[in-house]
Amino acid sequence: MAVLKSIITAFITLAVYSSLVSAAPEGTFNTTRNAVATFTKGVNGTITFQGYYDEKTKKESTLITVDIQSGLDIPAEGYPYHVHVKPITGDNCTTAGGHLDPKNITDLFVCKPPNLAECQPGDLSGKYGKLIADNGKNKTTAVDEYLSWTNPDYTLLNRSVVIHYPNSEFF
Known about the structure:
CATH architecture: Sandwich
GO molecular function, one term: copper ion binding
Organism: Ambispora gerdemannii
Protein name: 13066_t:CDS:1
Strand order of the largest sheet: 2-3-4-5-7
Shape: globular
Signal peptide: 1-23
Keywords: Signal
Number of helices: 2
CATH topology: Immunoglobulin-like
Largest sheet: 5 strands, antiparallel
Oligomer: single chain
């Protein structure tokens, strides 16, 4: 039962930093910010967010890299995962609050690509698919244009990432 109650959340505020990207095309993505959500209870692995700013278009984008090494034990159904509005306090997932949803879209809305602008910004599994287990692991990437490093309503800073059971319950 303790394993079922274990939390598989991570604080995005862990490893946030800015740096120059030397390999980026000149005048395009010239700055980056990074955050790493590290999972150690129930699921082991990381979700990395690498933010870019395009000076020409004045737009942000975020490369999301999922690297779960173990713990996804239900292979066929897939695990929903979301950015939640608050950091986790203690071992209680409910302290994460709801999904990052500044437009008040609600959890009842079914996010379907290619209309990602209509989705909750924090609904990563709705926008890019649930985490499908492959021998307990998952590796996937996506580029998100709706999460932000500068807009306080859409920011990743001081948030948490939660991976849910396939039935959407907290671990």
